[in-house]
Amino acid sequence: MSFATRRKPLAASQSHEGAHALKRTLSWPHLVALGVGAIVGTGILTLTGVGAGLAGPGVILSFVIAGAICACAALAYAEMATLMPAAGSAYTYSYGVLGELLAWIVGWSLILEYTVVCSAVSVGWSAYAVGFLQNQLGVALPDALVAGPHAGGIVNLPAVFIALAVTGLLLAGTRESANVNFLLVVLKLLALAVFVAVAGMAFNADNFQPFMPYGFAATEGADGTRVGVMAAAAIIFFAFYGFDAISTAAEETKNPGRDLTIGIVGSMLICTAIYMVVAATALGAMPAAELAKSEEPLALVLRALGQPLAAGMMAATAFVALPTVIMAFMFGQSRIFFAMARDGLLPTGLAKVSDRGVPVFVTIFTGLVAAAIAGAFPLGEIAALANAGTLAAFVATAACMMILRVRAPELKRPFRTPLWWLVGAAAILGCIWLFTSLPLGTMVRFLIWNVIGVLVYLAYGRTKSRLALSSPAA
């Protein structure tokens, strides 16, 4: 068997002991909170307005379509995560089903996705934090310390701070950080409930006419921007991913068969319902054209309704909400890195676990890299790379689920994807369609990243992996 196609035995994905084993401390409420914390963040706070500008009131249908594609991927994740309850998510599934080279590419793509998301959200939090301090507390930070060199500053200090603060929280222990995340998610959901209650009183059905002013299919608008329900769905999709971070916690889950299923499927159902209710409420309270003009559409609605206190609460919610997103993705990144190091594709010394059950070295490394990027670089264009990495992981997971149904139908599956052939195909085709909707520049940069990754694998992982060392002739 060649190095490219050698596969890790499925049983080996579930047997780790000693310094390379993670502690089982999480139950399904922690996993649901982890998923909701990752999904409900910048998307609900900003993409409602962006989507309304592209699709009008039909953006509600865009949420349904994007949610449906993600739901198919989530069902595939639920089956694979319960079948192979080990750290590593799509990387681990690919290693056992598709082979070492494809597993490396998927893992390399996930490293890109999670790290860039952590950095991008840190920068987003910095903007909210600076505004919150200035508008609510009257504290103005020096311009040189709130922007990187690209914007004429020295370093985006708040972005560096939050990335390192989340790193410190994760180092405190998996259960401890999960408990804090749970509380922050509850606060975030309460704030959204207040928005729905307040803005719902100004609901006007006339704001939903015409429902699809730009049509259903993605077409070129007057300014060259793609508009329509499907164009909005391609963007809104990126407000949904984050549930895959749950699968990276499989090895730390007390009852994987039950808890992972509830965590993955439950968080997707909750978030899809939240997105649709909040979007419908916002559109009912304000015409889509007005909603599209603001980067903080929910706060805009509340201010327009003469509710400055509630608007301030939404700003504070963003201040609280975004760190939960960073926490979820940094948690996932460290577990992907940990799994690859444990398999020998990266230096195995990085896979050591502390007494608290935390992979210390990779968590610190992830936090430092995310902080460095957030503090120094503009992430507007680079952040789109995270989307490409996500789609690659979704396609790989759905493919693994379908292949194992044919190759090993006898395996015990705590969760079985209903209509697996239809759900798997829908996830793959939907993600491919969304990938082709990304800007060409993003696709090129994603290709370059993976070319670099393959070179790293050929130079190190090909001969240093545990499979390579156990079968030198391979």
Automatic annotation (TrEMBL):
This is Amino acid-polyamine-organocation superfamily protein. Pfam families: AA_permease_2 (PF13520). GO terms for molecular function: amino acid transmembrane transporter activity. It comes from the Bacteria. It is a multi-pass membrane protein. It is found in: Membrane. Keywords: Membrane, Transmembrane, Transmembrane helix, Transport. Gene3D superfamilies: Amino acid/polyamine transporter I. The chain crosses the membrane at residues 31-54, 60-80, 101-130, 150-171, 183-205, 225-243, 264-289, 309-332, 358-377, 383-406, 418-436, 442-460. The keyword Transit peptide does not apply. GO terms for cellular component: membrane. It comes from Phenylobacterium zucineum (strain HLK1).
